[in-house]
# Entry
Amino acid sequence: MGVSIQRKNLHLLWRAGFGPSAVDCQLINSETPASYYKKLLALSVKTPAYIDVADSSQRQMVTGMQQNEGLRQQLSAEQKRALRIKSREGLKNLNLAWMGQMINSPQQLREKMSLFWHGHFATRTVNLLYQQKLLDIIRSHALGNFGDLLQEVSKSASMINFLNNNQNRKGHPNENFAREVMELFTLGRGNYTENDVKEGARAFTGWGASFNGEFVFRERQHDDGRKTFLGKTGDFNGDDILKILLQQKQTARFITRKIYRYFVNAEPDPAKIEWLANRFYERQYNIESLMTDIFTSDWFYGEENIGKKIKSPVELIVGIRRILPMQIENEAVLLLLQRLLGQLLFYPPNVAGWPGGKNWIDSSTLMMRLRIPELMYAGDVFSMKPKDDDDQMMGMKDKEERENDSAVSLARPGKKYNTRGRGGQQIMATIDWRNWLELYTPVARQNLLPAIVPVLLQTKTAVGETTLKNYVDAGSRENFIKTATVQLMSTPEYQMC
Amino acid sequence: MQLGSLATASLFLPKFMRAFETPRMVPAGNKILVVLQLSGGNDGLNTVIPVRNDLYYKARPKLGIGKENALLLTDETGLNPALSAFKDLYDDGSLGILNSVGYPNPDRSHFRSMDIWQSASASNEYINNGWLGRYLDAQCSGCGMPVQALEIDDVLSLSLKGEKMNGIAMRDPKRLYSTSHEKYFKDVLAQHQLVPGNETVDYLYKTMADTVSSADYIFEQSKLRPTTAQYPATALGQSFKTVASLVFSDISTRVYYVSLGSFDTHVAQEAQQKRLFTEMNDAVKAFVADLKANNRFQDTLLMTFSEFGRRVTQNASGGTDHGTANNMFFVSGALQQKGVLNPMPGLADLEEGDLKHSVDFRDVYATVLNKWLKADDEQILGKKSAYFDFV
# Structure
């Protein structure tokens, strides 16, 4: 039996974006996947607007200090701390602003690609301006040329600071960046020698970032001697090294394999990856072409690839909010959910990014995932504490807890919401059901479930009607759709796409 | 599943008889490991104090703890004044202290260094699972309930994530039980059918089923011989109380994992470390007393660690910044070697102001895995290690 057009389109929308909106669902039966993809791509062409959540005082301070080195030296420890705390608050806003783009932007393909690169070029630094800049580089080049992306990321203050290249000086090399650029960003383990790491590090000496986040080349710190790197010899600098890395077909293979496992199937198919990688390499690392090769192939829409991927926490939350638009009064609760489920944007576990797949799942995260739709719908109080992140807290946990009662206490008394004691949280959401309800207007009552299930679930199994019927509110047609939707989202199947 | 002799025997006891058993009758059983993670980078030098070392007082004119205030263990070593219970344990022969534990090329980021400690990796290696999770893999292959390793928390640490199995995190058995027994989830679970080509979904259902059955089992066990002892009303005190009740039951759990933090004392260290140590001291004191009263202290090993120690020199804010090597405590009624197990850190021989490590933490893990838990440490850690003799 062939795969239906609807199923193919939903597969495309989940993998090339964050799932369908209720409005998208009106089209999923009429368009072919090829024309749907064309549309998605066209919507993602425009260079995205810079996401800027820094306030003017923050920027002025940094500019002021850049112009006057003395000013920075004069800052007391207390002032520096205050700056960092402000930065950390800014990162929360940046997180929510970007998540907002994932939910609402028509540039679904670009944002999805950006989330992939965000995990590929993973950095952790508490500097808001650096992180904003890196995110902009990633979003601007997400579908562009991988070589450009690699180069700009490598020269970003975020990466330079995270991988200690400011400390990489002639005679005193710091090999951190040189190692990771090969191991994680281009070639992958086993495709270079320790000597390549050493020689590469020499070439990157002098690459640094100024306080306000500009790339600087410190010539006096640069080792301009001869280096032998991946079998080539010359007076290489950092740019030369990146060029040599891009000349390696292994780089195309490594990136293609990672993209295949992220967008198509965690189980790699060597023949398909080789075919894609060859074309990626021939077309000078054009990311858009690679993605078009994938999303317009027949095999992408094969049953073996559909519903086989475990949604990441961000994909899960964004996916729910795309199909059910909602106002969340306490948006910061989304950061709590990200932390509880193990994917807080801008805080990857390490430079290798989020491992993904089954790694998302343990008993705590799975049970939490299953509860989220109901928490959004009913606003129940829940009490879950994420682990402390000392890199974020910077020794301020005690103070914060005393001031706030609990750093994650987000529940507030209100008409609709109850708080029960200390430490309870709520998702204060108001769901806009109109489009979702309207979609089913033409469907007869007894056919509602068979119509809703295949739109929400991409898997082979689904919770049976007999089970579901005990938990849906059949009082009205509207309540039936609402409760059935929430219950279907609260199943293991909904974790898949 | 590996069950101790106690567990096996009690399976044949009628339930009403078990109800009449008093806690004092708990016989020797499984060896238990309790890991206490001190999150945030505990300052080891103000934990185990080199009271006769001038370099220490020179580096810490304000923060240094004077000999007169330290709880003296030896001529040259004292404990932080807030650790009176640990001093008692020392006198009792139930405390071992290992100094200068760390790893080569130390990382000073909390997250990364904690990652390294939890996954037992080298500092340039990224491993997506933890040492106790891999213990679980080895111990629990094919077993239905991954309860050999439990974390008292809402979120599971990397330490307890394996390649195949994951440990279970819970605040308390009752809450775990009520969350997993949401009727809808049980019904969803009951109606699931295996169909070919659906392996990942089946994996999610299996995780769900394991959670439900583990929650039942843990909850039942927690009611079997709940401790009646008094514990401090702190979060850590209550965590230890939960652990004690499970240790006294017939549960097959071998490893418990609890955390305390944050020890990230950049500012006003003295008060913060004192507050946390008091919480730790009182909780461990109650726990040990309870274990002794129930005849389980010789079967239990409590081990502390932190992702790094702190710099030798105090900073300008009455605190200390991120450092490297650190000490670990071992508390048990069955220590083979007691007291200060190796030399105090050399303060004259620093690396850019930081302590050098002389003990690799993976050798400590290997010792505990091999000698205490009788597990294959080489398989779990992926390398051959040297063992210590303290257990």
